[in-house]
Design a protein that fits this description.
Blueprint: H1 2-25, H2 28-38, H3 49-66
Length: 68
């Protein structure tokens, strides 16, 4: 019984470590750079507040989906 508990704890910790490793290898800077490329057609300062909010919402949605 104790061996089963130890094995389960090992599996769970390996899964958690794998999730952290995935987070460390992913680059938020790359995600931000791709969003900047999408916006490159607009001139600086021409985005209205609603458009900026849409971009921020899109970024957070993509990051939340990616790092579930």
């Amino acid at each position: 019984m104790e061996s089963q508990g130890d094995a389960l704890n090992q599996l769970l910790s390996d899964e958690l470590e794998g999730k952290f490793a995935l987070l460390e290898t992913s680059s938020i800077d790359d995600d931000l750079a791709s969003l900047k490329k999408e916006l490159s057609g607009t001139t600086k300062g021409t985005l209205c507040a609603a458009s900026r909010d849409d971009v921020i919402h899109k970024l957070f949605t993509e990051l939340a989906y990616r790092y579930k």
